[in-house]
Write a structure and sequence with these properties.
By secondary structure, this protein is an alpha/beta fold. Strands 1-3-2-4-5-6-12 form a 7-stranded mixed sheet, sandwiched between helices. Strands 8-7-9-10-11-13 form a 6-stranded mixed sheet, with helices on both faces. It has helices at 8-16, 59-74, 89-101, 115-124, 150-164, 179-195, 218-231, 244-253, 286-298, 323-326, 329-344; strands at 26-27, 46-48, 79-82, 107-110, 130-133, 143-148, 169-176, 200-207, 235-239, 257-262, 278-284, 305-309, 316-318.
Length: 352
Protein backbone atom coordinates (compact mmCIF):
# COMPACT_ATOMS: atom_id res chain seq x y z
CA UNK A 1 0.00 0.00 0.00
CA UNK A 2 1.14 3.50 -0.65
CA UNK A 3 2.09 5.24 2.56
CA UNK A 4 0.44 8.62 2.09
CA UNK A 5 1.03 11.44 4.60
CA UNK A 6 3.26 9.27 6.78
CA UNK A 7 4.52 11.04 9.89
CA UNK A 8 7.83 12.53 8.90
CA UNK A 9 9.82 11.39 11.89
CA UNK A 10 8.85 7.75 11.37
CA UNK A 11 9.93 7.88 7.76
CA UNK A 12 13.23 9.50 8.63
CA UNK A 13 14.01 6.95 11.30
CA UNK A 14 13.25 3.94 9.16
CA UNK A 15 15.11 5.27 6.15
CA UNK A 16 18.29 5.74 8.14
CA UNK A 17 18.34 2.30 9.68
CA UNK A 18 17.53 -0.14 6.88
CA UNK A 19 20.96 -1.77 7.11
CA UNK A 20 20.35 -5.48 6.85
CA UNK A 21 16.72 -5.43 5.77
CA UNK A 22 17.06 -3.68 2.41
CA UNK A 23 15.66 -6.59 0.44
CA UNK A 24 12.63 -7.10 2.66
CA UNK A 25 11.78 -3.81 4.34
CA UNK A 26 13.22 -1.03 6.43
CA UNK A 27 13.77 -1.14 10.16
CA UNK A 28 13.63 1.42 12.96
CA UNK A 29 16.13 -0.48 15.13
CA UNK A 30 19.88 -0.69 14.63
CA UNK A 31 20.42 -3.87 16.63
CA UNK A 32 23.08 -6.10 15.11
CA UNK A 33 22.11 -9.43 13.59
CA UNK A 34 23.05 -12.85 14.88
CA UNK A 35 22.25 -16.40 13.90
CA UNK A 36 20.81 -17.51 17.22
CA UNK A 37 17.47 -18.44 15.71
CA UNK A 38 15.84 -18.18 19.12
CA UNK A 39 18.42 -20.30 20.90
CA UNK A 40 19.64 -17.55 23.25
CA UNK A 41 18.14 -14.67 25.17
CA UNK A 42 15.63 -12.70 23.12
CA UNK A 43 16.58 -9.21 21.94
CA UNK A 44 12.91 -8.40 22.09
CA UNK A 45 10.03 -8.27 19.66
CA UNK A 46 10.50 -8.52 15.92
CA UNK A 47 7.54 -6.57 14.54
CA UNK A 48 6.68 -6.54 10.84
CA UNK A 49 4.05 -3.97 9.93
CA UNK A 50 0.94 -4.34 7.86
CA UNK A 51 0.41 -2.32 4.70
CA UNK A 52 0.36 1.37 5.53
CA UNK A 53 3.18 1.03 8.06
CA UNK A 54 3.89 3.06 11.15
CA UNK A 55 2.28 6.46 11.40
CA UNK A 56 -1.29 5.42 10.63
CA UNK A 57 -2.46 6.64 14.09
CA UNK A 58 -4.47 3.44 14.18
CA UNK A 59 -3.73 -0.27 13.77
CA UNK A 60 0.03 -0.29 13.18
CA UNK A 61 0.74 2.41 15.73
CA UNK A 62 -1.14 0.40 18.35
CA UNK A 63 1.19 -2.55 17.68
CA UNK A 64 4.21 -0.25 18.04
CA UNK A 65 2.88 1.00 21.39
CA UNK A 66 2.88 -2.61 22.61
CA UNK A 67 6.47 -3.00 21.46
CA UNK A 68 7.50 0.17 23.30
CA UNK A 69 5.84 -1.03 26.50
CA UNK A 70 7.66 -4.37 26.33
CA UNK A 71 11.00 -2.66 25.65
CA UNK A 72 10.55 -0.41 28.66
CA UNK A 73 9.52 -3.20 31.00
CA UNK A 74 11.92 -5.94 29.91
CA UNK A 75 14.91 -3.91 28.73
CA UNK A 76 14.52 -5.10 25.16
CA UNK A 77 15.86 -3.51 21.99
CA UNK A 78 13.10 -4.62 19.69
CA UNK A 79 12.99 -4.11 15.94
CA UNK A 80 10.06 -2.91 13.84
CA UNK A 81 10.14 -3.15 10.06
CA UNK A 82 8.17 -1.26 7.44
CA UNK A 83 6.44 -2.93 4.49
CA UNK A 84 7.34 -2.20 0.88
CA UNK A 85 5.06 -1.37 -2.02
CA UNK A 86 4.20 -4.33 -4.21
CA UNK A 87 5.87 -6.92 -2.01
CA UNK A 88 5.08 -10.65 -2.23
CA UNK A 89 4.44 -13.35 0.36
CA UNK A 90 8.05 -14.42 -0.24
CA UNK A 91 9.23 -10.93 0.76
CA UNK A 92 7.20 -11.14 3.96
CA UNK A 93 8.58 -14.60 4.72
CA UNK A 94 12.14 -13.34 4.17
CA UNK A 95 11.49 -10.48 6.60
CA UNK A 96 10.16 -12.78 9.33
CA UNK A 97 12.97 -15.28 8.81
CA UNK A 98 15.60 -12.54 9.16
CA UNK A 99 14.03 -11.42 12.43
CA UNK A 100 13.96 -14.96 13.80
CA UNK A 101 17.57 -15.60 12.78
CA UNK A 102 18.61 -12.33 14.40
CA UNK A 103 17.43 -13.37 17.84
CA UNK A 104 14.05 -11.65 18.11
CA UNK A 105 11.34 -13.54 19.97
CA UNK A 106 8.42 -13.23 19.57
CA UNK A 107 8.24 -12.38 15.86
CA UNK A 108 4.91 -10.78 14.99
CA UNK A 109 3.24 -10.17 11.64
CA UNK A 110 0.87 -7.21 12.00
CA UNK A 111 -2.10 -8.05 9.81
CA UNK A 112 -3.84 -10.94 8.06
CA UNK A 113 -1.59 -10.49 5.00
CA UNK A 114 1.20 -12.22 6.96
CA UNK A 115 -0.68 -15.50 7.32
CA UNK A 116 1.19 -17.48 4.62
CA UNK A 117 4.55 -16.07 5.73
CA UNK A 118 3.98 -16.88 9.40
CA UNK A 119 2.83 -20.39 8.50
CA UNK A 120 5.99 -20.98 6.48
CA UNK A 121 8.59 -19.42 8.77
CA UNK A 122 7.20 -20.68 12.08
CA UNK A 123 7.75 -24.23 10.85
CA UNK A 124 11.45 -23.45 10.30
CA UNK A 125 11.98 -21.96 13.77
CA UNK A 126 10.14 -24.14 16.30
CA UNK A 127 11.95 -22.53 19.25
CA UNK A 128 10.72 -19.05 18.32
CA UNK A 129 7.21 -17.88 19.17
CA UNK A 130 5.38 -16.18 16.31
CA UNK A 131 2.29 -14.03 16.40
CA UNK A 132 -0.12 -12.93 13.72
CA UNK A 133 -2.72 -10.25 14.25
CA UNK A 134 -6.17 -10.45 12.64
CA UNK A 135 -5.94 -14.04 11.41
CA UNK A 136 -6.89 -17.25 13.20
CA UNK A 137 -6.04 -19.81 10.54
CA UNK A 138 -2.35 -20.49 11.16
CA UNK A 139 -2.76 -22.42 14.43
CA UNK A 140 0.72 -23.93 14.62
CA UNK A 141 2.29 -25.13 17.88
CA UNK A 142 4.50 -22.03 18.21
CA UNK A 143 2.08 -19.44 16.84
CA UNK A 144 -0.38 -17.14 18.63
CA UNK A 145 -3.28 -16.20 16.37
CA UNK A 146 -4.34 -12.84 17.85
CA UNK A 147 -7.84 -11.88 16.76
CA UNK A 148 -10.62 -9.63 18.00
CA UNK A 149 -14.40 -9.27 18.13
CA UNK A 150 -14.30 -6.04 16.13
CA UNK A 151 -18.03 -6.35 15.57
CA UNK A 152 -18.70 -5.85 19.30
CA UNK A 153 -16.91 -2.50 19.55
CA UNK A 154 -18.48 -1.50 16.23
CA UNK A 155 -21.94 -2.28 17.60
CA UNK A 156 -21.30 0.22 20.39
CA UNK A 157 -20.05 2.72 17.80
CA UNK A 158 -23.30 2.25 15.91
CA UNK A 159 -25.32 2.89 19.05
CA UNK A 160 -23.31 6.06 19.69
CA UNK A 161 -23.73 7.22 16.09
CA UNK A 162 -27.48 6.68 16.16
CA UNK A 163 -27.79 8.66 19.39
CA UNK A 164 -25.51 11.47 18.14
CA UNK A 165 -26.99 12.04 14.68
CA UNK A 166 -29.36 14.95 14.22
CA UNK A 167 -30.53 13.78 10.80
CA UNK A 168 -31.05 10.05 11.45
CA UNK A 169 -28.47 9.60 8.70
CA UNK A 170 -24.99 8.14 9.29
CA UNK A 171 -22.16 6.64 7.24
CA UNK A 172 -19.60 3.85 7.17
CA UNK A 173 -16.33 3.86 5.20
CA UNK A 174 -14.44 0.56 4.96
CA UNK A 175 -10.87 0.45 3.72
CA UNK A 176 -10.96 -2.80 1.76
CA UNK A 177 -13.92 -5.00 0.82
CA UNK A 178 -12.89 -8.09 2.81
CA UNK A 179 -14.50 -10.24 5.54
CA UNK A 180 -12.47 -8.58 8.31
CA UNK A 181 -13.89 -5.14 7.51
CA UNK A 182 -17.35 -6.62 6.94
CA UNK A 183 -17.31 -7.37 10.69
CA UNK A 184 -16.90 -3.67 11.45
CA UNK A 185 -19.76 -2.76 9.13
CA UNK A 186 -22.07 -5.50 10.40
CA UNK A 187 -21.67 -4.53 14.04
CA UNK A 188 -22.03 -0.82 13.30
CA UNK A 189 -25.20 -1.24 11.27
CA UNK A 190 -26.77 -3.58 13.83
CA UNK A 191 -25.93 -1.24 16.69
CA UNK A 192 -27.35 1.80 14.92
CA UNK A 193 -30.52 -0.03 13.93
CA UNK A 194 -31.02 -1.20 17.52
CA UNK A 195 -31.55 2.48 18.38
CA UNK A 196 -33.47 3.44 15.26
CA UNK A 197 -34.56 0.67 12.84
CA UNK A 198 -35.30 3.28 10.18
CA UNK A 199 -31.94 5.08 10.35
CA UNK A 200 -30.34 5.73 6.96
CA UNK A 201 -26.81 4.37 6.60
CA UNK A 202 -24.40 5.20 3.78
CA UNK A 203 -21.80 2.48 3.12
CA UNK A 204 -18.70 2.50 0.94
CA UNK A 205 -15.54 0.44 0.56
CA UNK A 206 -12.53 2.26 -0.83
CA UNK A 207 -10.92 -0.61 -2.75
CA UNK A 208 -11.33 -4.29 -3.52
CA UNK A 209 -7.77 -5.15 -2.50
CA UNK A 210 -5.25 -3.76 -0.04
CA UNK A 211 -2.75 -3.28 -2.85
CA UNK A 212 -5.01 -0.59 -4.30
CA UNK A 213 -4.50 1.60 -1.25
CA UNK A 214 -7.70 1.11 0.71
CA UNK A 215 -5.87 1.17 4.02
CA UNK A 216 -3.24 3.76 3.15
CA UNK A 217 -4.85 6.58 1.16
CA UNK A 218 -6.27 9.48 3.17
CA UNK A 219 -7.38 11.13 -0.07
CA UNK A 220 -9.62 8.15 -0.86
CA UNK A 221 -11.08 8.29 2.64
CA UNK A 222 -11.69 12.01 2.39
CA UNK A 223 -13.44 11.70 -0.97
CA UNK A 224 -15.67 8.91 0.30
CA UNK A 225 -16.61 10.88 3.40
CA UNK A 226 -17.33 13.99 1.34
CA UNK A 227 -19.77 11.94 -0.73
CA UNK A 228 -21.55 10.57 2.33
CA UNK A 229 -21.71 14.00 3.96
CA UNK A 230 -23.12 15.48 0.75
CA UNK A 231 -25.76 12.75 0.84
CA UNK A 232 -26.77 13.88 4.32
CA UNK A 233 -24.77 11.81 6.82
CA UNK A 234 -23.70 13.70 9.92
CA UNK A 235 -21.78 10.89 11.66
CA UNK A 236 -19.24 8.80 9.71
CA UNK A 237 -17.38 5.75 11.03
CA UNK A 238 -14.17 4.74 9.26
CA UNK A 239 -12.60 1.28 9.49
CA UNK A 240 -9.84 2.07 7.02
CA UNK A 241 -6.46 2.38 8.71
CA UNK A 242 -4.47 5.37 7.47
CA UNK A 243 -7.28 6.21 5.00
CA UNK A 244 -9.47 7.00 7.98
CA UNK A 245 -7.48 10.17 8.55
CA UNK A 246 -9.11 11.55 5.42
CA UNK A 247 -12.55 10.72 6.78
CA UNK A 248 -11.75 12.54 10.00
CA UNK A 249 -10.44 15.53 8.05
CA UNK A 250 -13.65 15.74 6.01
CA UNK A 251 -15.81 15.43 9.11
CA UNK A 252 -13.92 18.27 10.73
CA UNK A 253 -14.27 20.48 7.66
CA UNK A 254 -18.05 19.98 7.64
CA UNK A 255 -18.49 20.19 11.43
CA UNK A 256 -19.96 16.71 11.76
CA UNK A 257 -18.89 13.73 13.85
CA UNK A 258 -16.32 11.12 12.87
CA UNK A 259 -15.81 7.84 14.72
CA UNK A 260 -12.26 6.53 14.77
CA UNK A 261 -10.97 2.97 14.83
CA UNK A 262 -8.43 0.63 16.47
CA UNK A 263 -6.61 3.31 18.54
CA UNK A 264 -8.14 6.17 20.54
CA UNK A 265 -7.82 8.63 17.70
CA UNK A 266 -8.96 11.56 19.84
CA UNK A 267 -5.60 11.26 21.61
CA UNK A 268 -3.39 10.88 18.53
CA UNK A 269 -0.97 13.80 18.16
CA UNK A 270 -1.13 13.81 14.36
CA UNK A 271 -4.91 14.24 14.53
CA UNK A 272 -4.94 16.88 17.27
CA UNK A 273 -6.30 19.63 15.04
CA UNK A 274 -9.30 17.43 14.21
CA UNK A 275 -9.91 15.91 17.62
CA UNK A 276 -12.99 17.96 18.47
CA UNK A 277 -14.72 16.21 15.56
CA UNK A 278 -13.82 12.69 16.78
CA UNK A 279 -16.81 11.58 18.82
CA UNK A 280 -15.26 8.28 19.93
CA UNK A 281 -13.20 5.38 18.57
CA UNK A 282 -14.01 1.67 18.31
CA UNK A 283 -10.80 0.29 19.74
CA UNK A 284 -9.16 -3.11 19.71
CA UNK A 285 -6.32 -3.68 22.09
CA UNK A 286 -3.57 -4.49 19.61
CA UNK A 287 -1.12 -2.80 21.98
CA UNK A 288 -2.10 -5.18 24.75
CA UNK A 289 -1.98 -8.23 22.49
CA UNK A 290 1.58 -7.45 21.37
CA UNK A 291 2.73 -6.72 24.92
CA UNK A 292 1.10 -9.83 26.41
CA UNK A 293 2.69 -12.08 23.80
CA UNK A 294 6.10 -10.58 24.56
CA UNK A 295 5.48 -10.99 28.29
CA UNK A 296 4.49 -14.63 27.86
CA UNK A 297 7.76 -15.31 26.04
CA UNK A 298 9.73 -13.38 28.68
CA UNK A 299 8.03 -15.48 31.40
CA UNK A 300 8.89 -18.66 29.44
CA UNK A 301 5.19 -19.49 29.10
CA UNK A 302 4.59 -18.46 25.47
CA UNK A 303 1.04 -17.96 24.30
CA UNK A 304 -0.04 -20.16 21.42
CA UNK A 305 -3.30 -20.93 19.67
CA UNK A 306 -6.16 -18.52 19.13
CA UNK A 307 -6.11 -15.51 21.48
CA UNK A 308 -9.31 -13.55 21.02
CA UNK A 309 -10.07 -10.07 22.35
CA UNK A 310 -13.66 -9.18 23.25
CA UNK A 311 -15.65 -6.68 25.27
CA UNK A 312 -15.67 -9.17 28.13
CA UNK A 313 -11.89 -9.47 28.42
CA UNK A 314 -11.07 -5.88 27.43
CA UNK A 315 -9.75 -6.80 24.00
CA UNK A 316 -12.15 -4.34 22.33
CA UNK A 317 -13.84 -1.23 23.70
CA UNK A 318 -15.22 2.20 22.89
CA UNK A 319 -13.07 5.19 23.83
CA UNK A 320 -14.37 7.81 26.22
CA UNK A 321 -11.82 10.59 25.76
CA UNK A 322 -13.88 13.32 24.10
CA UNK A 323 -15.70 15.27 26.85
CA UNK A 324 -18.60 15.82 24.45
CA UNK A 325 -19.04 12.04 24.31
CA UNK A 326 -18.22 11.24 27.94
CA UNK A 327 -20.57 13.94 29.17
CA UNK A 328 -23.55 13.02 27.00
CA UNK A 329 -25.82 11.07 29.34
CA UNK A 330 -28.13 9.79 26.62
CA UNK A 331 -25.26 8.32 24.60
CA UNK A 332 -23.50 6.94 27.67
CA UNK A 333 -26.63 5.21 28.96
CA UNK A 334 -27.37 3.66 25.57
CA UNK A 335 -23.79 2.45 25.11
CA UNK A 336 -23.66 1.01 28.62
CA UNK A 337 -26.92 -0.87 28.11
CA UNK A 338 -25.67 -2.28 24.81
CA UNK A 339 -22.34 -3.31 26.32
CA UNK A 340 -24.08 -5.11 29.17
CA UNK A 341 -26.30 -6.91 26.66
CA UNK A 342 -23.35 -8.09 24.59
CA UNK A 343 -21.46 -9.28 27.66
CA UNK A 344 -24.47 -11.14 29.03
CA UNK A 345 -25.23 -12.75 25.68
CA UNK A 346 -28.66 -11.20 25.34
CA UNK A 347 -27.37 -9.29 22.31
CA UNK A 348 -25.81 -11.42 19.57
CA UNK A 349 -23.69 -9.28 17.28
CA UNK A 350 -23.51 -10.18 13.62
CA UNK A 351 -20.22 -10.54 11.79
CA UNK A 352 -21.50 -10.16 8.24
Amino acid sequence: MRRVSRIAVAGAATAALAITMTACGSSSSSSSDSSSGGGGKSKGIGLAYDVGGKGDQSFNDAAFAGLEKADKEFGYTSRDIEPQDGETDADKAQRLEQLAKSGYNPVIGVGYVYSPAVQEVAAKFPKVTFGIIDDDKVQAKNVADMVFHEEEASYLAGVAAAKATKKNHIGFVGGVDIPLIHKFEAGYVQGAQSVNPKIKIEKQYLTETAQEGGFSSPDKGENAAEGQIDAGADVVYAAAGLSGQGVIKAANAHKIWAIGVDSDQYKQAALAKYKDSILTSAMKNVEGAVYELAKSVHDKKPQTGVVRGSLTNGGVSLSNSNPAFAGNTAIQDAVKKAEEGIKSGSIKVKTS
